[in-house]
Amino acid sequence: MTASPSFLGFPGRLADDRAPRAVIFDAGHGSTYPGKDSSGYALAADAIRAASQDDAGLVEHWDFDLGGPLFDGQPVSCIDAGDIPTTMHDNAGNRARIEAKTREILALPAVPILLGGDDSVPIPFLAGFADHGPVWILQIDAHIDWRDELHGERYGYSNPMRRVSEMPHAAGMVQVGLRGVGSARLAEINAARQYGSRFVTAREVHAQGVEAALRHIPPGARVVVTLDCDGIDPSIMPGVAARTPGGLTYTQVIDLIAGLGKRARIAGFDIVEFYPPVDIDGLSALTAARILVNAIGAIIRQA
User: Fold this and answer.
1) pLDDT in tens, 14-68
2) Would you say 229 and 273 are in contact if contact means Cβ atoms under 8 Å apart?
3) How far is Cα 154 from Cα 123, in angstroms, rounded to an integer?
4) Residue 303 in this model has a pLDDT that exceeds 80
């Protein structure tokens, strides 16, 4: 089998043995619900990597999203560590491997960047920060993901923010892009509000700009960003299982990431819920790749 190209042609390690600033890795499977087939999500990381290849030779060119080259004139400092072995329905094993890899990257120290996978993989990803807290969580999503359990599973794609709220190192949570009708019942809304989660609807961002979300993040806080692709409008991110009109625009997402990098410190980043089987002309993969470029650029530029 031919190995897939790395994101933007990044190396698996830096030639001069410098410690990387950021490490990309992917996990195709997290905690799949009984009787469900999540295999389509395992195609996401390679689709994003493939979409980045046209720009692989342009890393040193001027990027107008970032106001300069990706690495701000410095040597490449991000590596792509490839995939970690996951198996559909090996839920506990998958969680253990994702958490262990996250801890390994944080110990370098570097900023871990996880390509999912469905929206269950942020649970072990955030669990990996237990020795590196406190951290705030900035979730970009159409849904609040506060179900306590579903189909007997407590660590699936409807449960991540509920599970994260139970982690002692989670200092607070801002949930951005909420809209439409999703999994939330009144009980989930009440539980999230009782915890202290700050809800920022997509309409609020459209009306007030990204400051509607950023103002809830304490200045200087360490923040993990978890980006569910259905938080983005389906006109530019059609490759999701739950298309909902009225989502965040590309510019709003990259402004949110850039603003976060200036206000606080991005300690980790994941992008999940991209479902390549329903993508249209590779548009979602391209959008996800460009958002990932902006996340790396923001990480490189923070103090």
Assistant:
1) 988 889 999 999 999 999 999 999 999 999 999 999 999 999 999 999 999 999 9
2) yes
3) 10
4) no
Task: Enumerate the β-bridge partners of residue 140.
Answer: 176, 227
Tokens of 245: 């009109």
**Could you count the other beta carbons within 10 Å of the beta carbon of residue 179?**
22
* Domains of the chain: residue spans and CATH: 7-301 (3.40.800.10)
| Residues forming a β-bridge with 22 | 78, 111
CA distance 103 to 138: 20
